[in-house]
Amino acid sequence: MISEMMLRSAFVLITLSGAVSAADWPRFRGPNGSGVAETSGLPDSIAPDKHVVWKTALPPGHSSPVISGDHIFVTAFDGDKLLTIALDRGSGRILWRREAPRDRREKLDSQNSPASPTPAADGRNVYIFFPDYGLLSYTFDGADRWRTRLGPFDNMYGMGVSPILAGDKVVLICDQSHDSFAAAFSQADGKQVWKTPRPEALSGHSTPTVYRPQGGGIQVIAPGSYRMDVYDLETGNSMWWVNGLPSEMKSVPVVDGDTVYINGFNTPFNDPGRHIEIPSFADALAKYDSNRDGALQQAELPEGPMRAYFPFEDVNQDGKLDAAEWKSFQAVMAAENGLLALRAGGAGDVTATALRWKYQQKIPQLPSMLIYRGVIYMINDGGILTTIDPANGQAFKQGRLRGAIDKYYASPVAADGKIFFVGNSGVVTILKAGPEQEILSVGQLNDDCFATPAIADGRVYIRTRGMLYCFGLEKATADARGWTPISRTL
Asked: Residue 285: which domain range?
């Protein structure tokens, strides 16, 4: 059973961002980023011709579907157009499309897209972040509410963080090669309320989570390079923080009662026992600076990690590393990968007292961990699944998903005693909840998939490169306006 504390936390956090129903999936990874929905009657197998309530063709985009009221929202790109698309929750019919301004092109990793951040919705309005423009908001009818220009940004992969709603604010964490910051904007008019620098943050796209200590105000948990800061929602001040994180954070922190769980991975050389010694800048110059220009070029460095990771450390992209960039490289390589269980709360630097336990095998770089019915589920990018006891960090079982060998960027989600995993090639695996990793089914959607699924009201929503699917056990009926959803034979 789900812990009483987790249920209480979910109820409190649902109320933090206004009129959000418990049946909604209003942000990236659902209620407070947990990846867990309270619903039942979900299918135990999924395929393009099985349990399909409806499906709707969409332009590509990596953003996940969000569900609020009778609407579903996604973002997409069509050529140079940046689109927000609203669909009817019951039928999948497209209600409206809106195009965002775009006068620049962010540099993107090949696995990223210009429509990667997931929207957030509150039952009345939807809030969108396009890195090539900034923040926008529409009513559920598609009317423009406000636009707030931000950027340009300089993240080595391109931005991927999603906005969240907390209290009466939109919160956005923008980690990049320089000038990283956390910021809050008014939900009413999009005006900036506060902006707090994050000088340690180098890159990453970890979407934050909300925390409210007993008797205290709303706080925003925002992991970044080397440390996790927790900001006061009203002022933007960092209330407490924990050091010891890897240099890149992409996963969502999960709050369960008074514990925060967060996984982070940068390189294999950040695993225990695999660290390499990086010499001081002076020693490196003496050994490798063959042209004696006081800097280090990629060709001057020996084969191996120092040369391989050069492009990521050349922050100003001038083709050489100076003393500051080399110092940053030393810090990157000295950090440790891991899944951390942290005691929530406190004041100032709580590093010495916050760590409950740390697990450091087969840590994901992109997928966020999931905690459901007393078990942690963690699948890494290569498809190795680990189930862990959240009480002590001991692994129950570790192994590949049988029949589902794939790369995994989407995060697992859960409801109705089932865990859903979606691989990059569209393979969908459903597990029975529990530490044994008992597979109920493996299906194939035969299309690329990078978006994390959504779950609400007995339905599972999965977005592939070209389609948004709604899966459920109920039989669909024809829409009165002539649109016919896909139905299955009962």
From this structure: 281-333
